[in-house]
Prior knowledge:
CATH topology of the largest domain: Zincin-like
Low-confidence stretches: none
CATH class of the largest domain: Alpha Beta
Largest sheet: 3 strands, mixed
Distance between the termini: 23 Å
Helix content: 25-40%
Shape: globular
Number of helices: 7
Strand content: 15-25%
CATH superfamily of the largest domain: Metalloproteases ("zincins"), catalytic domain
Amino acid sequence: MKLLDREVEVIVERKWMKNIYFRINQEGQIYVTCPIRTSDHAINTLLNSNVKALERMYKRYLTKEDKHNRILYLGKEYDFIEYKKVMIDGDTFYGPSVSKINEYLEKNSLKIFEERLALYINEFTNIPDFRLRTRKMKTRWGVNNFSSKTITLNTELIHYRYECIDYVIIHELSHFYHKDHSTSFWKEVEKHYPDYKKYRKELRY
């Protein structure tokens, strides 16, 4: 199937399910899951009637891939000098490859996130003691696990501006008051971060 003047492979997986779903996977393919008896014609009809949505999804995928091929640290792009190991000297980045430098930045993101958390934590009262941790996540920027009293932030946030990091932190802190994404939840987020919609949109690529 052609999206944005590119040929994109379609992968179909049939399961015991009721509805048809499609997405762009990490390999840049259109991944379709559908009921066992769904015909190829029905799948093609669905895809052809949703070309605009697929193109938006594919554009987000391309933008994300482009970010992975650059050194972005807190929203600023850097060049690097090739070196056997990763080092940062002022505004100069050294390392064997872009991917290795990005891995290093993500691995060491917790300190930055803790500093940003400290700027907002006192605005939130009557919340439990919790632990802040990081890990690489495919579909979420942050998770508030109420049972383990842990907030987890996606390490890839280190490539975005402080404002985006702050939004995710406030989003997860607000979940201590509202576990769902109700109107009350978003009002809580807005109270602490009036421009949250701007940075929420930025994180959608």
